[in-house]
Specification:
The protein is α/β, with parallel strands linked by helices. The chain has five helices and five strands, in the order E-H-E-E-H-H-E-H-E-H. The N and C termini lie far apart (35 Å).
C-alpha cells in the first residue's frame, strides 16, 4: 500500500512510518519537522521569517497588508513538490493544520491532497483549540 503521512507531532508519524515500512508498505512523510524538534521527514516544508529582523519584517507586512509571508512560502514549497504527493492509497493528516500555515493556505494544500489521492484521514493529535472545542 502507498501511504502519505502529513505533519509531525512528537514523532508519531515517524514511528508509524517505521512500523508501516517494516510491514512492507511504501510510506512517505511530509512535514515541517515539528518546528524546533526537527524530526526527520522525507519531504521537509521549511518555516522561514520566524527569527530576528526577518520576523519583524514579517509582522510589519502582515499588519500592513494582512499577508502571511511564512504561510505563503510554505505553500509555495508544498506545491513545488506536488508531483510527489499524488497517487497515494491513503493520506493521513496529523491534525487539522498539519503545516501550521494560515487557514486559507492549509485548505489549498489539503484540498490538493484530497483531489489527488484515494482516501484522506484526519487524526486529532494534541490539544489544539479546534479539536478541544469540538469534543466538549
Amino acid at each position: 500500500m502507498k501511504i502519505l503521512l502529513v505533519g509531525e507531532y512528537s514523532r508519531l508519524h515517524n514511528s508509524l512510518q517505521e512500523g508501516l515500512r517494516a510491514l512492507g508498505h511504501q510510506v512517505i512523510l511530509i512535514s515541517t519537522g515539528d518546528y524546533f524538534k526537527k524530526y526527520p521527514s522525507d519531504i521537509i516544508i521549511q518555516r522561514s521569517f520566524d527569527k530576528g529582523l526577518a520576523r519583524k519584517l514579517k509582522i510589519a507586512i502582515y499588519l500592513l497588508f494582512k499577508f502571511d509571508i511564512t504561510s505563503w512560502y510554505m505553500t509555495k514549497q508544498f506545491f513545488k513538490t506536488s508531483e510527489k504527493l499524488k497517487g497515494f492509497d491513503v493520506v493521513q493528516l496529523i491534525n487539522e493544520s498539519p503545516f501550521g500555515a494560515s487557514v486559507k493556505d492549509e485548505i489549498k494544500m489539503i484540498s490538493f491532497l484530497k483531489q489527488n489521492n484515494k482516501k484522506l484521514f484526519l487524526l486529532s493529535c494534541g490539544t489544539d483549540y479546534l479539536s478541544v472545542t469540538a469534543s466538549t
